[in-house]
Every structure is written in structure tokens, then in C-alpha cells.
Amino acid sequence: MESDWSARHGFLYVAAFPEEEREAAALELKAMTGTALEGGVARSSVACDVGASAYTKIVMAVAAEAESFEELVGLVADLGLEAEGFAVEVHRPPPKVDVSSIDCAKEIADAIAGNPDLDHPKIALAVVAKEGRYWFGRVVSRARRDWHDASERPENFSNSLPTRLARALVNMVAAPGDLVVDPCCGAGTAVVEAALVGAKVEGYDLNWLHVEQTRKNLEHYGLKVRAAKGDARELEGRWDAAVIDLPYGHTSVADDQLYLDVVGNVARRVKRLAVVTGHEKDYVWDRLGLAIRGRAKVPATRLVRHLYLLGGTPEA
Ligand SMILES: C[S@@+](CC[C@H](N)C(=O)[O-])C[C@H]1O[C@@H](n2cnc3c(N)ncnc32)[C@H](O)[C@@H]1O
Question: 283 and 165: one domain?
Fold first, then answer.
């Protein structure tokens, strides 16, 4: 008998994030899939590709759902599933329930006919365990988790974005194939991440030393991307999306007029816009007539980053 792996209970997204990046994780998932993250998971009737995601780990087609693990095992057994060369992985999104992942995987495997193959699984199955809610199903999309730690890059500076956050920012506004601009690119963290997810990207910075840093980082990954000196207040062109990590923090000159001029110029030229500042700047976006479509606060060691998804202007 053919096993029925269809998503009879819809799809479940499972995220993993450091607690301080919870809001960024929720914003990334919402932007990529339209679903809201609650306690590390999100339900949806559709499965999106999360290969490039910074925070979403897997998407699962849910075959069974229960209030206790024992009930879940019974439901899985009742489904009469057969699989050859399968592996069962167990996810415990935060706050973590106190169950043994190995025991859970074994019990579920015993309820499925066929042989597991943990080394080279042909079919990936998953249990997701949360307090009072358990899901079982087949993994249909998985994050590659291929952003690289900043310490691997030849060039960084104190104001560089964490690479994972830069990946999330790219995902909030762009998909593979989109044309993306980073007009204040610094050492090029978001430029590299945009290129790695398959977007076409250009980076600009007022400071020639930062342009050179971006070029070295791109070269390190063998990425052929344009990085040039440019003033974000005067850039001309059209792009699908922009990621603007504005100057902020101890080492940067940051004032509202610069923000008005940079964001005002770029917003007219893109359809989707993600902006990062070191303070709440709602009144600046208000003056520019830009709606806030999403926001997240990300605390770091010496500052709190404020992420904004801003509406493009009508003529873009
Ligand atoms: C917060 S840093 C960007 C850091 C970058 N995202 C990274 O991860 O390395 C802001 C950058 O904006 C640049 N900048 C400041 N004013 C600018 C302007 N008018 N046009 C272009 N770049 C500008 C600064 O030189 C600085 O590199």
C-alpha cells in the first residue's frame, strides 16, 4: 500500500533563534511565508521554500497532531505508514519540553513499517514537541543554514551586522533573482548574504575603505558583485529591494537629516525596503510618508538595533 504523506493537517514551520533575535525571526517568517510565529512554530495551509532562511529550520507536512506524545504515537501507528530508508528527527522549539529526543524518535520509528537509514535517509520525518502539543509529519523544506560566521570573513568592522541577521534582512525584502541594493554597505555583510541567496545585488558606500572591505569579502566567497563608492543620498537607479543598515552606534555620524535624505532617495527607487537604525525612528519615516509594514528590536552587546520594513512610495 502507498503511504499517504499528504499534509492532512496543513504545514508546520519550526524556527530556531537566540532569544534576543525572536522578533527578527518572526519578521523574517512573516515576510517569507505570511505566517505568524508563536512559541517557535507557525501553522499554515501552504509550504514555502525556506532553504535560504536565517531562522526557520524546517517546514513539515503534518500527518498527525496530538496533545500528548503517547497519543501521537498511537495516531501514527493508526496511519499504517510505510517508508524505506527513513530518519526521524525531533525538534523542540523554545520553551523546550523535557522529553528525550532519542526515545521519541525510536518510538515513532517503531510505529512505521520499513527500515530506517539514519546515515543516508531518503525520507526525512519529524516530530515537533511543545508543551501540550505534538506533531508528526514529513519534512518538505529545510534551511541550508549556509550563512557564514563573520569571523570567517577577511574584513569586518565594529558596526558590521551579524551575518545571520543580515541574511534575515535580505529575506524580509527579496527572493532569489531579485535585484537588491545595499546603499550603505560597510563591509558588505548584507551584500554577501544577498548574493549567497541568489539575488542580484549592488553595494555602495560613501567611504572608499568600506567599499574595499566589501570587495575583499565578496572575493573571499568568489562572488562577482558590483561594489562601488557612492552617496546613498544621490544614487540613481531602480531596484526590487533595498537593505539599508544606516550609520549608528559609537563610530558613526548619524542624524535625522542623513536618514531623511538616504531613505527618502532610496525608497522612491525600490518596491520593498528594510532599514536598520540604532534608535526608534518612526517620526522620520512618518515625515517621509512611509508606512511601517513590520518592525523588530534586536538587542546586541552595546546597542539595540531597530529593524523596520517600510512601504515603498506609489511611483516605485
Ligand atoms: C552601520 S554601517 C553599515 C555596516 C554594514 N551593514 C556591515 O555589515 O558591514 C553604515 C555605513 O554607512 C556608510 N555611509 C554613511 N553615510 C553614507 C552615505 N551618505 N552614502 C553611502 N554610505 C554612507 C558608512 O560609511 C558605513 O559604512
Answer: yes
